[in-house]
Amino acid sequence: MHRFTLQLYTDNKDINSINYLRGILASSRTVDKLPPTEDSLRQHCLRAHYQTHIWLNALTPKHSFLNYSEYGWKVENSVVFPILQTLPSIPTNLTVFTCRCKKDCHTKWCSCKKNNISCSGSCRCLGQKSCRNVNPSVVTTNVIDKNDGSDCDDTDDE
Question: pTM value?
Answer without folding.
Answer: 0.58
